[in-house]
Amino acid sequence: MQNINQTLGQYSELFMLLAALAYTAGFLAFTWDLVKSSRRIREIEAALAESAGDRELVLAGAVAGKGGKAAGDGAAPAGATADDAMNYQGERRTIARIAVVLTVLAAAIHAVAVVTRGVAAGRVPWGNMYEFCTTGGLVVAVVFLLVLTRKDLRFLGTFVIGLVVVMLCAATIGFPTPVANLVPALQSYWLIIHVSVAVAASALFTLTFAMSVLQLMQANRVARLAAGGDDRLPFMRLVPSALSLENLSYRINAIAFVLWTFTLMAGAIWAEKAWGRYWGWDTKEVWTFVIWVVYAGYLHARATRGWTGTRAAWLSIVGYLCIVFNFTIVNIYFSGLHSYAGV
Amino acid sequence: MATKDRSGDIALPALGFLGTLRWVWTQLTSMRTALFLLLLLAVAAVPGSLFPQRPANPAVVTQYIRDNPETGPVLDWFQLFDVYSSVWFSAIYLLLFISLIGCVVPRAIAHGRAWRSRPPRTPRRLTRMPVHGAFTVPAGPDGQPGGQEGGRPASAGAAVVDAASVLKKRGYRVDVRDENGNQPSVGAERGFLKELGNLVFHVSLIGVLISVAVGGLFGYRGQKILVEGETFVNTLVGYDSFTPGTNFSEDNLDPYSITLEKFEVQFDRQLTHYGQPIDFTATMTTRSAPGEEPERQILKVNEPLTIGDTSVYLVGNGYAPVVTVRDGEGNIAHQGPVVSIPQDGLFTSLMVLKVPDAQPDQLGFVGFFLPTAAIDENGVSFSRDPDPFLPQLNLNSYYGDLGLDDGEPQNVYVLDTDTLTELNSRNSEAGGIVLDAGETVELPDGKGSITFDGLRRYAALDITHDPAELGALLFSSLALAGLSASLFIGRRRIWVRAGTTDDGRISVEYGLLARGEDHRLAGEGAAVEKLLRDRWLADSAEDNENETAHAGAPATGSGKDN
Ligand code: HEM
After folding, report:
1. A51 within some domain
2. DSSP of B351-418
């Protein structure tokens, strides 16, 4: 049996705290960027309104997204707004850059923390709630950074990095667990396969959750603007149109759904190995199934007339809430065979 | 397509019986119904995680109903303790699968037809396509045959033939039209695997469902607790409990035998997780049939044994103190290990012993086995380590009629003390029985004695047979493959048309159309155009002044392939 390296484990915990601090700084920078950019947009707007007295013009960019499929080719919105293809534009957003740099730094420290934890335990670092949370948070951050290399999703930073901070806090405050060996039930290579894919899928679902929330907010805001209301969420000017958010989150959800399907299957295979049946409606299995069906519903909705857009976004959000529920409430309060929460 | 929804027409015209049937069928197989049923299925699955379920935990359900005499029976009436075999849950998934079949069959037929037909005819105006472009190339030198690799096309027809071969290499099915006319064109289509994948995915779900059903019909599952040194023979009477499939017959059991030689447990001795188990190892001797060579095998959690056509799983373990009970007449009324049920991580274990053979009165014992006994400040005994450093029995004893003779089945782990008279307990005059290993205690009133002889461990085994397991694995893997194909393959059409301009150059225009969501369409257009240009203009830089018209990329399209 592997000997646990407690000293290394303590270093890992220290790094985890440092990572949480760095993420918090990144989160603040992302938020500052949102505030600052939206203030700038207001200034431009005010200036424009003064010179031209034409409010419609400035709003055009934001409103373009509300229409049908063709909306995407609408003119790029004013100022620093992300374009609908979410490609990087000429405009330099210094604070957003600082935020990204801070996030990269945080993710690097975080990676060290997760790796040292694994080394200290002599196994993969996802054997209890603390480890699911910390490793999951790392995957969320890394996936976000990877997507950032191709698409300008910096507008998501506040939300995604905010979620990572929440995950790290939940892990360190909610389920602190010192490094330890695995209980026999978890000593299987299926732990590596099943859980890593589940974590990856959940990370992607986290991104799409944030995007779906923004999509709903954007759709709502645009509808209000179109009805002549005033802009209560000016920072949303930085966010692409609801339609492009929907399309991108559909693509990510599709990948995540395939991963989740695999998670479900791998879990069934493991259950067969461990308990002699591949499916037994254990609470954890029930919720994994529910999540799978909700996202299958989401994919169907995308192909059903009258169900795309807002309703599909709601399904994506409900699916994510089920994931959170499955991870927190089910792990902690529901008894079942999967009682490895370690809390 | 059967998936077109036709809801919204609320006013029902008089349809007649057949008409009504057809209407019901169209509704059932509509995409909207499928979506509705899917969401309903998700909701319906939830109660199964909120209430205890009979198949997994019958005793807990009984207890729940006893504890909630008001709501329990109502919940039971709604089958909330048997959610996954309930009428309503079954109705939902059966409807869903009927809908699925009704949806898949017409689509499969349509897809089969599409597979055999030629790519659709070239639209008159390619500029109407969501992705389109046009450019011109100089015609090839006289005499040089068109369509040659790397050369300029000699004519519009040759350009189209070239384009066809480029597209074919990219996996398109191509069809050249009007090659020698003045508007030659090629129509191409790819991504048939997308729809095929979707069909395979949905059909495989039916396969998974059937596999589950077959497993339920022909499989079986049994439990056996095996104390070190004991042997299990795979016959019906050998099991402690047995759940046969609907079509099970006893002849299905292979007459193998398993002996538990040794059961070893290792606990974590690091301070942070002191006492947490880190290894369970059961050493077994197996015989595949009576008289066969014995074979030594190791059974661990996550590493089942395969024997006969069953698999044997290690699902639990605990201590079985060896106890001898002498009755009031001095005869041995019981001798042997008694399985105790661990109640916590420290293996504080509940123990019940019924001695029906004791004379003149039957005897019963109930209490705890403590692997490492200790006494807390209130004088209550507890175990402070899961390893047996100081094994001890703490028992109450009773005499009277155990009620075993009237043939009613009883739970061996529960002693009903209502009809019995107490001999020993903490509150009785004689006090409770406290036995360290090797000790004997006399029962009051000359009712007999009890001796704690020693300690063995036991392994709780699950033994299962599921003939359709492989089918379920196969179909779910197919489903996964089909799903990936369906989600990640793009189904697209592309048309390229060539003509000759007034100054003798060759004009090329193309248009692309995707079926369903395809964010890579613009990228594909750009890639095809580049391939054609490279092929035709590779050797001449000066031709690059050709202007290209790009327009109308779809919402997410940016011309970048990602
Ligand atoms: C057991 C129930 C079902 C499940 C779990 C399920 C799941 C899925 C999933 C995950 C997809 C997205 C992947 C893909 O495009 O291939 C999908 C697509 C699709 N499903 Fe189902 N489905 C079910 C039943 C049905 C039924 C009853 C219908 C017909 C009414 C149907 C029609 C379709 C269609 C037409 C698509 C393609 C949508 C598109 O073009 O994007 N499905 N299904």
Report:
1. no
2. EEEEETT-SSSEEEEEEEEESBEEE-TTS-EEE--SS-SB-EEEEEEEEE--S-TT-----TT---GG
